[in-house]
## 1
Amino acid sequence: MTCPTCGGPTPWSGNPHRPFCSLTCRLIDLGGWLDERYRIASPRPEDDDPNVP
Ligand SMILES: [Zn+2]
């Protein structure tokens, strides 16, 4: 089993963070997901200017 975040070996049995190798990689993956979701849900106002022809 490899960690989806860092690609390193992941201990499976007794690992509370699986499929991640550690809490750090788990939080990195979660943070990236939340950041992407936030960007999708919050378009920049300057990209939606009605005064631009
Ligand atoms: Zn990892």
Note: The chain has a mean pLDDT of 81.
## 2
Amino acid sequence: MVYIGIDLGGTNIAVGIVDENGQILCKGSTPTLLPRPYGPIIADIAKCSLETLERSGHTLDDVAAIGAGVPGILDPRTGIIPFCTNLGWHDVPFITELQKYIDKPVYVGNDATVAGLAESVAGVSAGAHSSVFLTLGTGVGGGIVIDGKAYSGAHGVGSEIGHMIIELDGEECTCGNYGCFERYASATAIIREGRKAYAQHPDSLIGQLCGGDPDKITAKTIFDAAKESDPTAVKVFRRYVRALAHGIVTIINVLDPEIIALGGGVSLAGDFLLQAVREAVKPLVFFKTMPYARIELAKLGPDAGIIGAAMLGK
Ligand SMILES: [Zn+2]
């Protein structure tokens, strides 16, 4: 049997035909074309899925289930997506709408949860009993997998690791609260702090790397300057790593997973980031003499969305 995996983003919708082992057999994509109502978007998802299925050499008889990763949540009581902020969706009956075109079981998960599931099937956490995946991007997403299953809580609203509050009266978050983990551990946080630091130290290497234009500072700018031991960038980098380590230690203290996988754009900093995070976590762990979660880089990259979505139905 095969599974259809759908990664629904604000710009693009990626579709894949995935086998039992989480390997992608064939891929397709279609633009999301926001803003437009959910009806035509879901019609396009179905069309793209069926076209991709045909190209893979399979038919609907071979399809066990369809899974979709969405930038939001599904209400497990109703099967309705109550909201997807960046799609402008409110109360979208995604499952029944998609089943108008393809009569198969449909499963929906949060995009970070789904990426975590993918890593646990075919990526860095394969074979682990429990894992937590963190996407470090514009925000911070979290995916918790326990006993091979994506865990999003009793009401479908769990695993929002980016919104753990780690600082009282801290930075304002897009969720309306203050001091959320993602305000300190996302690419957005590195850029914000990098710009501040550059304004205070215009002679920093950060200035050379961004051509003197603070709007061009990215997370990579800061990492690159820190790798060259630029003191201003090193300070921003160390502060970032400390914030990330505090969130990771909280996850370890609460869940004690086997693996914590770091993904998303920031994780492209690779070993430079990984080694620093491992060092920063070590002294913060509660049970000093006990083993604790291995911290690793995610493996699957952008395909994780398709693979994990497909695996929701497995
Ligand atoms: Zn928040």
Note: The chain has a mean pLDDT of 96.
